[in-house]
Design brief:
single chain, alpha/beta
């Protein structure tokens, strides 16, 4: 196991053989997910180059470059503070990159923020739900922003996440798990090209886990792309094709999700 460049006393996990083609990394270490040094043909859902995001003096993302093939399901994992949430927020234009740039669904996150937001759905830590409104009203507000095509799906999605019987109740009466289900339904309301899901299994029980798994299957069937940040490696290996591990905002491991733990890259 070789040392990481530029840091003493700490060692990084070994780079495994990577036969898949769901992810292509263009980090300094070379290209991943294809044979040889030539770039495989697209299309690519995400192409990031040298992304950096700083909070004060600390770089939450540091020179991170990767590309994700359209239709892939990528697990993003790492210790607390490794940059997982920051990466998703930057790609969603919820946070602005201080260095580098990225194309998401073919649009630049710095120059075409509105176009990116039309094509990306972000499930973040903050639910953004309106406590005084009912579950149905929260969905209807979201549908109003998305346009007329979203409105007919409100009742369907509330049934899908198991909230049909509580659709008229104010969100202030909901448990944490029910709030997560409603947030998931609102995220799915946007039939996006790229879904950025930050800890989607958090606060859910086993039936809730199965709801997320079913949603991921539906997203895959539509050909959309998923970047899923999670500490739950067992769920991530089952749900995703490929995986990356972040440490101090840098990419330190990438490969098939099924090989994550065996490669010693699990945080």
């Amino acid at each position: 196991m070789g040392p990481r460049c530029g840091r003493s006393g700490r060692r990084s996990p070994p780079r495994p053989r990577i036969p898949g083609d769901a992810i292509l990394s263009t980090h300094r270490e070379g290209q991943i997910g294809e044979q040889g040094s030539e770039r495989a043909p697209g299309p690519w859902a995400v192409e990031a180059s040298g992304l950096g995001r700083r909070y004060g003096r600390r770089w939450a993302l540091a020179d991170l470059s990767l590309s994700v093939r359209r239709g892939a399901r990528l697990l993003v994992t790492g210790r607390n503070g490794s940059g997982k949430s920051t990466l998703l927020r930057v790609l969603a234009t919820a946070a602005r990159a201080d260095r580098g740039t990225a194309l998401v669904a073919g649009h630049d996150i710095l120059e075409a923020r509105a176009e990116v937001r039309r094509r990306v759905a972000l499930l973040g830590h903050q639910s953004g739900l309106y406590d005084a409104l009912s579950a149905r009203e929260n969905m209807e507000v979201a549908a109003g922003f998305l346009g007329k095509d979203a409105a007919p799906r409100v009742a369907e999605l509330l049934r899908t996440v198991g909230l049909a019987e509580r659709a008229g109740d104010p969100v202030s009466t909901f448990s944490a798990g029910m709030r997560k289900r409603l947030s998931l339904a609102r995220t799915l309301l946007q039939q996006a090209e790229v879904y950025l899901l930050d800890e989607p299994y958090g606060e859910l029980d086993p039936p809730g886990f199965r709801l997320v798994d079913a949603a991921l299957d539906d997203i895959k069937a539509r050909g959309a792309t998923v970047l899923l940040a999670s500490h739950l490696l067992d769920r991530g290996r089952e749900s995703c094709d490929e995986a990356i591990v972040l440490e101090d905002g840098r990419l330190v491991w990438s490969g098939p999700a099924a090989e994550l733990k065996d490669a010693g890259a699990a945080p």
